Amino acid sequence: MPSTNNAPKPWDTDDIDKWKVDPFLPSDNTGGTLAEESSFIVLFPKYREVYLREAWPGVTKALKNLGIACTLDLVSGSMEVKTTKKTWDPAAILKARDLIKLLARSVPAPEALRVLQDDVASDVIKIRNLVNNKEKFVKRRQRLLGPNAATLKALQLLTSTYIQVQGNTVSAIGGYKGLKEVRRVVEDTMHNIHPIYQIKELMVKRELAKDPLLKNESWDRFLPNYKKRSLSKRLKPHKISEKKAYTPFPPAAEPSKVDLQLEAGEYHIGREAKKRIAHEERMEKQKAKNEEKKREREKDFIAPDEPVDGERKKKKRKTKALDD
After folding, report:
1. d(C-alpha 185, C-alpha 204), whole Å
2. Contacts of 200 (CB under 8 A, 6+ apart)
3. What is d(CA 145, CA 147) in angstroms, rounded to the nearest whole number?
4. Per DSSP, what are the bridge partners of residue 161?
5. Which of 55, 83, 151, 299 is within CB 3.0–4.6 Å of 87 for a Cys-Cys bond?
6. Exposure of 200 by Cβ count < 10 A (0-12 exposed, 13-18 middle, 19+ buried)?
7. Residue partners of 255: CB distance under 8 A and separation at least 6
8. Which residues of the chain are under the pLDDT cut of 50?
9. Which of 234, 227, 229, 205 lies closest to 217 in space, CA to CA?
10. Is 195 within 8 Å of 189 (Cβ atoms)?
């Protein structure tokens, strides 16, 4: 049977955007209301209580248009969303769940409400478990922000997303392509790859996408290729441990204290005799030291050797001959 994949398709033209997501309208729901109620509860930290209390009327109004009910419990510190009989979009409860997740992660309410749109998604990336050391984690998280948050702003512009770094997570809001790039950059940064390399690559891709001639070609020759460099130029380690010759027999055991006493003949001597011998040895050492110190002190009082009379006359004759 001949293949029909290459058959002409008059309805498939170049001006069709295959990535476009058509909005879901109430008229598209032909099945009616939902059969059961779905709900999600998300806890929020204590410091978000004041902000959520101020921004909650706007959140309630936005969710009411989708037929979603929401409650803010300040006693237990939680936010709850659930479906109602007026809910006409089955995916609305999932969007509402993402909304309260972002609000709990310190995302501003105007940015978090964008998740309710059909062409906008969100991603909460957990970064604490990617690095074991706390000091390294703090440094790499700061590297993701950059000086005066310049790195984060550049990443937001290149991926067309909103990024919020808070605590142990990174929250991102935007299109699906942008979220994929953001996750790749964040994970590489936590794995000790500087984000400036990824930003340069995104800038090159952005310029190449504007050229219609390179639309269907591979961009590998244009993208920067960074090789991992070894900082150490040493080919050999500082200390080379030489392996000893293998012997099946274990090394000889060192003689114990009892064996040493038996060899010296001190094992059968009584306790008092041992004390006396040790005292005598100590006194002998002390006497030898005292004599050595005494000799050193007496060196200063020893008179130098004086020359004989014959030697003095010879020296005088030499001095007279030199004067003449």
Report:
1. 15
2. 224
3. 7
4. 174
5. 83
6. middle
7. 263
8. 1
9. 205
10. yes
